[in-house]
């Protein structure tokens, strides 16, 4: 099973690649969607980002968390990922029932601000 540390490392690699592709000299903000808004999860996420971003373009980036409802994915035909408060959420693209993304996925990168 992938640890939270490895998920943050992968997210940070994605953010850094995005910043480099824009020719940015640094990342000023990391915008993350947070699916588990517990104070412990938030604190651990911020600390891990801080540790892993040392000596990178994201070293002093502000971590901005956006709480979100549950996240679903459509495995029927389209693979769309979507958010919903409804536990029986249906895909807005094809109308089939979505499957809840596992609860150990606590966050996702929304976008980066770079300068």
Summarize this entry quickly:
The chain has 115 residues and is α+β, with helices and mostly antiparallel strands.
Q: Sketch the major β-sheet.
A: 3 strands, mixed
The share of residues in helices is: 25-40%
Can you tell me the overall shape? Answer: globular
Q: Whole-number radius of gyration? A: 15 Å
Mean pLDDT: 92
Number of spatially distinct domains: 1
- Count the E strands: 6
The H-and-E topology, N to C, reads as HEHEEEEE
Low-pLDDT runs of 5+ residues are none
Describe this structure in words.
The chain starts with a helix and ends with a strand. The strands form 2 sheets. It has a 3-stranded mixed beta sheet with strand order 2-1-6, covered by helices on one side. A 3-stranded antiparallel beta sheet has the order 4-3-5, with no helix packed on it. About 20% of the residues are buried. The chain has a single domain, classed as hypothetical protein PF0899 fold. It has helices at about 5-20, 40-50; strands at about 25-35, 60-65, 70-75, 80-85, 100, 105-115. With about 120 residues, the protein is an alpha+beta fold. It is built from 2 helices and 6 strands; from the N terminus they run H-E-H-E-E-E-E-E. About 30% of the residues lie in helices and about 30% in strands.
Tag the structure with descriptive keywords.
single chain; 115 residues; hypothetical protein PF0899 fold; three-stranded mixed beta sheet; three-stranded antiparallel beta sheet; 2 helices; 6 strands; 28% helix
Blueprint of the fold:
Layout: H1 4-21, E1 27-34, H2 39-52, E2 62-67, E3 70-73, E4 81-84, E5 99-100, E6 107-114
Parallel strand pairs: 1-2
Antiparallel strand pairs: 1-6, 3-4, 3-5
């Amino acid at each position: 099973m992938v640890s939270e540390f490895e998920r943050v490392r992968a997210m940070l690699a994605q953010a850094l690649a995005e910043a480099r592709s824009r020719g940015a000299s640094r990342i000023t903000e990391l915008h993350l969607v947070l699916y588990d808004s517990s104070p412990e999860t938030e604190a651990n996420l911020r600390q891990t980002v801080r540790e892993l971003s040392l000596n990178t373009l994201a070293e002093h980036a502000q971590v901005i968390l956006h709480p979100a409802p549950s996240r679903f994915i459509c495995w029927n035909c389209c693979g769309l990922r979507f958010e919903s408060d409804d536990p029986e959420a249906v895909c807005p693209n094809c109308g089939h029932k979505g499957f809840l993304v596992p609860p150990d996925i606590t966050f996702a990168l929304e976008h980066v601000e770079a300068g």
